[in-house]
Amino acid sequence: MLKSFIPLKFKLDSSITDKHSAGGAAQARFTQGFFQRSFDRKLLIRVFLAIICTTILAFSIVAPTYRDFTLSRQNLHDIQQYRLVLDTANFLSAERGPANVVMSEEPSLDSAGMKRLVEFRQRSDAALAQLADVSDVPLGLHNHTVPPDMLQRVRYQLALARSKVDRIAAIPRAALKTAEIQDAIESMFEVSELFRAVIAWNADELVQHDTGLAAPALLGQMLSDLREYGGRAASQIIAPLTTEQRLPPQNVIESRRSQGRLLELWQLINSQNAIYSTPSLIKSRDEIERLFFRGGLDLVDQVIDEGRRKSRYTLTATEFTERFVPTMRPIETYRSEFLDAVVEKFADASTNALFGLAIVVLVTAIVLATLIGIILSVRTHVFRPLMQAHDDVLRLAEDRPIATATRPTQAGEIRDLFQAIEVLQGKLQERASLTRELKVQAETDGLTALLNRRMLDRFAQSSPIGERTNDSMCLILMDIDHFKKVNDTYGHVTGDRVLIQTAELLRSQLRACDLIARFGGEEFAVLVSSNDLSGAVSIARKIRLAMQRETFTTPDGTPFRVTASFGVASGRRGERAWSELIELADTALYRAKSDGRNRVRFARNTLSAPAAMSTTRDNLALERRSPK
């Protein structure tokens, strides 16, 4: 209970005793604080500007490296997506091989050619679906999504060409017509032509994003065309070969045109050897020269010569396809190895860019942290300690405690300065502690640890803080009955024990908001912060019964009991009102003693008539039930 009122007590002390001395100190503190805030503000502004300039310099160093990293990362993603486009083109071209075989055989759903055609078609469909997928890309990257209308045209033409192939595959070989087979083959050519537009669009997108992608994009496109025209050179003669008819001049012209295009592409590709020249690529180029240009195209020339001279061929369409397709595998191998090399090159570039970015960021961060550290160190270890010492000296001069913040760790004179200030601080804290103890001793009863009469008077006579604070209160005066007899019978030591035990009983029976004090001698006072006299009377009754039931003992353990009388009154805070309230409560206490002690009486003129009658009846009924 005492601890809960100590902050109130010291607040009251400061408001009563320090009014005159606070003015000058407050003015000094204002001047001191304004000076320090002004200095700190100027210093902080300069430090902030220095940090901003350093950060801008660091950003100008890091930004280009970061741009290089993001560009290399995007290029790697673009090349990987471009490879998907080229792979799809290869799948569409490769689908013509099993389609030619199926159209040249007798109808069968279980033939090896039909199963292979189904497998190739599934592969083409999966590749087209992957190109159309617009799922989320990694953070910071973007896709060059193929326009849906371009893919839709490819799908439509592919479905049309497949329907023609399937229709011909269902016709017996003897009933096949060259024109129908040629029409189906031309439809497959149209699919590749439409998809070449997709490749060109994607390559243009890559070059517009970064001209560094022009070489791999163009070379990849040429390799895709090499595979396409290699297949066309053979497909142009499949229709008459299947029906065992003489080669029409138009078929010969188209096949020769495709071969010429192949030679042009191959010359252009060979001119780019210096860009991507690895042992595996060199080996694949040699294989293309040996197997395709000397083997595959020679086989085409042989069939053309036979078809121009007569209608009987030494090879069937299926045999021709089975011998020609393997000669094109080096082209596919070369294309795959080239794309692997391109992807690996850009992956290495992305890794190197990331490594370079990490180094630049690390070095820049170290430099930036060092500069900021130096700036902050000067502020912290030079300017701030001096300002703190200035502030501490002024506080000591004004007899105020200095801040308890951690002292700066400095060497030399500054360290000695703060060591001296710390000594003064310790002395000041010791003096403040002694002062607080003296105040507590001066305003606290030493025996019961309750507030004494002086503190009670100061609180009750002070004006309430705040306009809305209720200044009404009730006073309960309590006097231990026959206390002199206790002292005479058991001694003063036992009397002190009774006072201490009574104080503990009051603490246990009252609320935290009620103020308890030793009023003098064997008298105690309780201030209830309310004008509810009935409630105060009830509190007094509760204390009276608790006292009546309490067992007290002498130092040797002899038990005995004591009772107490109570006087209750209500009033207000203030110097004059407090005197009147004490007089009313004391009069009520006197009546309680006159009526036989162990009674609760209240000042009747402070309670309304109905409440007084009710309280009186309750009081009399309780006293009749309670032993005297």
UniProtKB/TrEMBL annotation:
Signal peptide: none annotated. GO terms for molecular function: diguanylate cyclase activity. Keywords: Membrane, Transmembrane, Transmembrane helix. SMART domains: GGDEF (SM00267). It holds the Pfam family GGDEF. Residues 471-605 form the GGDEF domain. SUPFAM superfamilies: Nucleotide cyclase. Its EC number is 2.7.7.65. It catalyses: 2 GTP = 3',3'-c-di-GMP + 2 diphosphate. Coiled coil: none annotated. PROSITE patterns: GGDEF (PS50887). The chain crosses the membrane at residues 43-66, 353-378. InterPro entries: Diguanylate_Cyclase, GGDEF_dom, Nucleotide_cyclase, Rev_trsase/Diguanyl_cyclase. It comes from the Bacteria. This is diguanylate cyclase. It comes from Rhizobium sullae.
